[in-house]
Write a structure and sequence with these properties.
The protein is mostly helical and 485 residues long. The protein contains 18 helices and 4 strands. Its main location: membrane.
Length: 485
C-alpha cells in the first residue's frame, strides 16, 4: 500500500483532506492569476482587444464544459480503482481518459476553429470586436485537444491522491503562457508582434507545456505509466462517459443561465447593475477557491475509500468536508460582509456612484450564501466519489433553472423581456437589482438545504455501501487487478 493510499483509507481524515486540498486551492489561485496577467497585457493593446477576448469567455466556458467528461470520469474511476488496490486498472483508466480527451478536444476544437466567426456574432459581437474575437477563438480552439489531454492526466494524479503533481502541471501551463504573452503580443527581437493572435498562441503554448510536463510525470516514477497499460476497451470508455457526462451537463446548465442572467441584469440595472454583477461574480470566484479545492480533494478521498470498501470513512470524509468548506467560506463571507466597499474598490479602484452602491449591496448579500456554497461543494463531492454524478447535474438544473433564473427575472421591468440564444425571459415585476442579488444567494441556500436533505436520505439508503459493492463487482468482472503493477 502506498503512503498516499494509506493516509486516505486509514489516516486522519481532516489532516489528509486539507493536505490534499491545499495544492488544488493553490492551482486555482494560479489560474486566476493567469487571467489577471492576460488582461494586463491585452489592456496594452486597447479596449477593443480586451473586449474581443472577454467576449470569448462564455464560449470557451461551454467548450471546457464538454471536456469535463474525461476529466471528472478519470478522477473518480482512478480513485476508486486505487482504493481497491487495482493499480493496473487505475493506470488503464488514465490512458482511456487521455484518449477520450484528445478525441473530444479535437471534435470541439475543430468545430470552434471552423465556426468561430458565426459563434462570436451569435453572442453579440459588434463589427469592431467580431474579427478579433473570432481570430482569438479559432486559434485557442486548436489547442483544446492539448488542454483536454493535459487535464485528463492531471485528473489521474488527483484521483491517486497526488495533488502536488496537478499543481505543478498547472504552474507550467500558466508560467509558459505568462512568459509568451508579451513576446508574442508585442514582439521581441526577430519575433514579430502578433497582437490578439499572439495572445491566443501564448495560451496554446501554455497548454502544450502543461501536457508535456503531465506526460513526463505520468511516464516517470510518479505514476509509472507503461506500454502494458495501453489496451483500450469499450467498457472502460462507457464507464468514463457514464460518470463524467452528467458533470458536463451540470457545467452547461450553469453556463447557459449565467449568459441569460447577464441579459436580465443589463435590462434591470443598466451599466451600474452590470458593473455590480460583474464585480460580485469576480469576488465570489476568488472566495470559493478553498471550497472548490476541498471538493476536489474530498471527491478523490471518497472514491478511494469506496474502492477500499470503507463506506464509513467515505461518509466521514464527506461530513468533514462539509464542516471545513462551509466554515472556511463562512469566515470569508464574514470578512466580505464587514468591509464590502474596500473589497469592491480592490477590484475596481475608480468605482463610485450607483455602481459602488449596488456593488456594496451585492457583496453584502452574496456573503450570506457563502457557507451554503461550501456545503454543497462537499456534499456533491460525496455523491461524485460514489459515482452518483447525476445528482450534481439535477442539483444544478434545479438551482439555476427552477430557482435562480425565475427569481432574477422578477427584476425586469413589467414592459421588458430578455431574449438570448433563443431563450426568452418573460417580463418581471420591476423589483430591480435586489431581486437578482437575492436570486443568487437564495438559490445557493436552497441548494444546500435540498442537497443536504437528499444526502441524508441517500446515506440512510446505503449510498456508500452500495457504491463499494459496485466497485467490488466491477473489479471481479474485470478480473484485471494486478497487485504487482
Amino acid at each position: 500500500m502506498s503512503d498516499r493510499r494509506a493516509a486516505i483509507v486509514e489516516g486522519s481524515i481532516p489532516r489528509t483532506l486539507v493536505g490534499l486540498a491545499l495544492p488544488l486551492v493553490a492551482q486555482n489561485v494560479v489560474r486566476v492569476a493567469q487571467q489577471v496577467v492576460d488582461t494586463f497585457w491585452l489592456g496594452r493593446l486597447g479596449e477593443t482587444a480586451v473586449a474581443a477576448v472577454g467576449l470569448t469567455i462564455p464560449v470557451l466556458g461551454v467548450c471546457f464544459a464538454l471536456l469535463v467528461t474525461p476529466f471528472v470520469g478519470t478522477q473518480i474511476l482512478v480513485s476508486q480503482r486505487v482504493g481497491a488496490d487495482d493499480d493496473a486498472g487505475a493506470h488503464r483508466m488514465v490512458v482511456h481518459g487521455f484518449v477520450l480527451a484528445l478525441l473530444v478536444g479535437a471534435l470541439v476544437g475543430g468545430a470552434v476553429f471552423l465556426g468561430a466567426a458565426p459563434v462570436v456574432r451569435l453572442v453579440g459581437a459588434g463589427p469592431d470586436v467580431a474579427p478579433l474575437a473570432a481570430l482569438y477563438l479559432a486559434v485557442v480552439g486548436l489547442g483544446l485537444p492539448l488542454a483536454g489531454a493535459s487535464d485528463a492526466i492531471e485528473a489521474g494524479f488527483v484521483g491517486r491522491g497526488d495533488s502536488r503533481a496537478s499543481l505543478w502541471i498547472n504552474v507550467a501551463t500558466v508560467a509558459v503562457n505568462v512568459v509568451l504573452d508579451p513576446i508574442l503580443i508585442f514582439g521581441v527581437g526577430p519575433i514579430r508582434g502578433m497582437g490578439v493572435r499572439g495572445a491566443a498562441l501564448a495560451t496554446v503554448g501554455g497548454y502544450a507545456a502543461g501536457l508535456s510536463l503531465a506526460l513526463a510525470l505520468a511516464l516517470g516514477p510518479r505514476m509509472h505509466l507503461a506500454r502494458r497499460h495501453l489496451s483500450l476497451t469499450a467498457a472502460d470508455f462507457r464507464d468514463l462517459l457514464s460518470v463524467g457526462a452528467p458533470i458536463t451537463g451540470r457545467q452547461v446548465v450553469s453556463q447557459s443561465v449565467r449568459v441569460l442572467l447577464v441579459g436580465v441584469v443589463a435590462l434591470a440595472g443598466g451599466a451600474p447593475g452590470l458593473a455590480a454583477y460583474t464585480i460580485g461574480a469576480r469576488v465570489a470566484s476568488v472566495a470559493v477557491l478553498p471550497s472548490r479545492g476541498l471538493g476536489q480533494a474530498a471527491q478523490s478521498m471518497v472514491g478511494q475509500n469506496v474502492g477500499a470498501d470503507r463506506p464509513d470513512r467515505a461518509r466521514r470524509t464527506t461530513r468533514v468536508g462539509v464542516v471545513v468548506a462551509a466554515g472556511s467560506l463562512a469566515c470569508l463571507g464574514a470578512a466580505q460582509w464587514l468591509v464590502p466597499a474596500p473589497v469592491a474598490r480592490l477590484f475596481v479602484p475608480s468605482l463610485a456612484g450607483d455602481g459602488l452602491s449596488l456593488t456594496v449591496q451585492y457583496l453584502t448579500i452574496l456573503a450570506y450564501g457563502y457557507p451554503a456554497i461550501g456545503a454543497v461543494d462537499a456534499l456533491l463531492a460525496g455523491f461524485n466519489g460514489a459515482s452518483r454524478t447525476r445528482t450534481s447535474f439535477v442539483a444544478d438544473l434545479l438551482k439555476y433553472w427552477v430557482v435562480r433564473l425565475p427569481v432574477a427575472a422578477l427584476a425586469l421591468p413589467a414592459t421588458a423581456s430578455a431574449s438570448l440564444l433563443g431563450v426568452t425571459v418573460a417580463p418581471g415585476l420591476d423589483l430591480g437589482m435586489p431581486a437578482v442579488f437575492w436570486a443568487v444567494t437564495g438559490s445557493n441556500v436552497v441548494a444546500a438545504v435540498g442537497v443536504g436533505a437528499y444526502y441524508a436520505s441517500a446515506v440512510r439508503g446505503g449510498l456508500f455501501v452500495d457504491a463499494a459493492a459496485d466497485v467490488e463487482t466491477a473489479a471481479d468482472d474485470d478480473g484485471s487487478a494486478d497487485p504487482t503493477d
